[in-house]
Design goal:
Radius of gyration: 18 Å
Shape: globular
Helix content: 25-40%
Number of helices: 9
Mean pLDDT: 95
Bound molecules: zinc ion
Largest sheet: 7 strands, mixed
Structural class: alpha/beta
């Protein structure tokens, strides 16, 4: 977990990002603010990262994308992970334009640095707008994007990642969706966003109105997990509405669901 956060920032939850590590290749799903720091903290804890073949974005909300320029421009190991090559980013329509805008926004910085030490191919970006379906495949993974409902975005994705020995499903931000049970169907790990059903009535009125239209409550997630049957359910992008704790979130889900549930912390490994 490279970051379990939401737009409500705090020290413990860095910007939203999940890494799937297969034989030294790190596939990054969302790049919230701080992703480059958490990645290096993981390396400091002994995680071995050789390369970042691709980044996948669920939707264009800032808590999932603010780390992209840092992934492009931080030097040293960060660039080395990409073999010095461009950062390749897949996502729903709009991601290619976002990468083009990032490229334009830091043009003066590139010019200033190029004058000192020459240009770097690692500053290049490749953004690809993709439709739902298989969006990426190599010898380690098959990555499938599927549509989830996260208004007001016309397109938001969850991702199903298949490796040689595991299937991992990442919900992205979504209100309750049938797609999760269909894509997981007994998967090894389901990483799913959540807010507290118990805490919602204590949240500010605008949040009480918005969250049920765009996100998934603990009780709703319990119902989804009962159908999806993951071997492990990992809560992330936790919205601790009403000041609930991680234990409260797990308890709320488990009050209506019998499987294994954990509430993720940054840098946890599953
Ligand atoms: Zn979010
Ligand atoms: Zn969102």
């Amino acid at each position: 977990m490279l970051g379990t956060g939401t737009p409500i920032i705090d020290a413990a939850h860095s910007g939203n990002s999940v890494g799937v590590l297969v034989r030294g290749s790190l596939y990054i799903f969302d790049a919230g603010p701080g992703v480059e720091r958490r990645m290096l903290e993981a390396v400091a804890k002994g995680v071995k990262i050789d390369t970042i073949p691709a980044v996948f974005i669920t939707h264009l909300h800032s808590d999932h994308t603010l780390g992209l320029p840092a992934l492009v421009y931080y030097h040293g190991r960060n660039a080395a992970f990409r073999g010095g090559g461009p950062l390749t980013v897949y996502g729903p329509p709009g991601i290619a334009a976002m990468m083009t805008h990032i490229d334009a926004a830091w043009a003066d910085d590139r010019g200033a640095r190029a004058g000192v030490r020459g240009g770097s191919p690692s500053w290049q970006v490749r953004g690809a707008d993709v439709a739902a379906g298989i969006v990426y495949r190599d010898s380690n993974v098959v990555v499938k994007a599927f549509e989830v409902p996260h208004q007001p975005w016309p397109h938001a994705f969850g991702y199903r990642v298949e490796t040689a020995d595991r299937v991992i499903v990442i919900s992205g931000d979504t209100k309750p969706s049938e797609a999760i049970a269909r894509e997981c169907a007994g998967c090894d790990v389901l990483v799913h966003e959540v807010y507290s059903a118990v805490g919602l009535p204590k949240a500010p009125p605008e949040m009480q109105r918005y969250h049920p239209t765009a996100h998934t409550s603990t009780y709703e997630l319990a119902e989804i997990a009962t159908k999806a049957k993951p071997k492990l359910l990992v809560l992330y992008h936790q919205l601790y509405l009403g000041g609930v704790s991680d234990d409260d979130l797990v308890r709320e889900v488990q009050s209506r669901y019998n499987g294994r549930v954990v509430s993720a912390h940054d840098l946890d490994v599953y």
